[in-house]
Amino acid sequence: MEFCPGCGKKSKGICRDCRPQKEIKVRDINIKFCSSCKKYFHRNKWTEYTDIEEVVKKIASENIKEENISINPILPEIRMKPGITEEAFIEIEIDGDISYIPANLEMTYCDKCSKKQGEYFEGTLQLRNVDEEMVEFARSFFRKNNVFISKEKEQPKGIDMNVTDKKRLQNIGLMLQRKYGGSIKVSPHIHTQDRQTSKQVYRVNLLYEAPEFRIGQVIKVDNKVLLVKNISKTVSGVDLATGSRASVDLKKKEYKILRPSESRISKVHPGIEILDPETYQSVPLRNKKKVQIGEKVNVVSDRGVYYIL
Fold first, then answer.
1. Contacts of 214 (CB under 8 A, 6+ apart)
2. Residue 207: is its pLDDT beyond 90?
3. What angle do CA 35, 39, 40 make, to 5 degrees?
4. What pTM, to 2 d.p., does this model score?
5. Cα 228–231–236 angle (5° rounding)?
6. Per-residue pLDDT at 12
7. What burial class does residue 90 get, using C-beta atoms within 10 Å of its C-beta: 0-12 exposed, 13-18 middle, 19+ buried?
8. What percent of the chain has pLDDT over 70?
9. Strands 235-239 and 245-248, how do they pair?
10. Beta bridge partners of 255
11. CA–CA dist 239, 228 (Å, integer)
12. Is residue 180 part of a domain?
């Protein structure tokens, strides 16, 4: 401020006339605020706030070792930009006498926001063979858990995400595998050495590779037409020909994805038939399901043999 907060005279801070007439016991008032989120640093931790004036008043009351005082912060126009220190004043009334003491309000970043602003990261999520739904599933998980994606890089078959929490990184890998199937591979590697503890600091790469097909799709493998229910190291689901559960290891095996088509039920007795999606002729189904004539259904075909889904 270029004027005295007490009398308004031109002055760099409190003028001589407005300085306390009696000695006031007070510790320096220096408060750090995060310029990105509503937090201030107090007692070695970042704490949320709603009113900056109330924060200044609270800390001033803790730092002024006087009784029966009235405290009124006088704040400048606050610029919430990192690197800026605003000078404020605290009006103090003791037994009818009014005095003013300075306070410094420093704008910076809290620990979490400093990671977000910089290129800090603890691990990389490598997504391969994924679609936009899977990518957004990972982004949403990180947002909900206050994990920042410091960098994204497109890759030929997917995307890499540098993230600020390696524990959450491993969580999302398992969640992706549980929801969409596929495989994960975790590769920790030494990044640096902590200067204070001398311990090795690790970064983690987690590779998630989605299968070419998804849960709910139909594949043909080992002469089985399989409605996929789970994908991990093996693929399991329902054998549409028999209705029984089946499991198969796809390593070194050829498979074919059977795309569904829409059709209508043309007959229910003595057996269920549909209209062939290409010829519109009535053809039988290999498997059974409770349906009605004219009902729209999805089917897959394996060399002219139809299965209802």
1. 180, 181, 228
2. yes
3. 95
4. 0.52
5. 50
6. 61
7. buried
8. 87
9. antiparallel
10. none
11. 9
12. yes
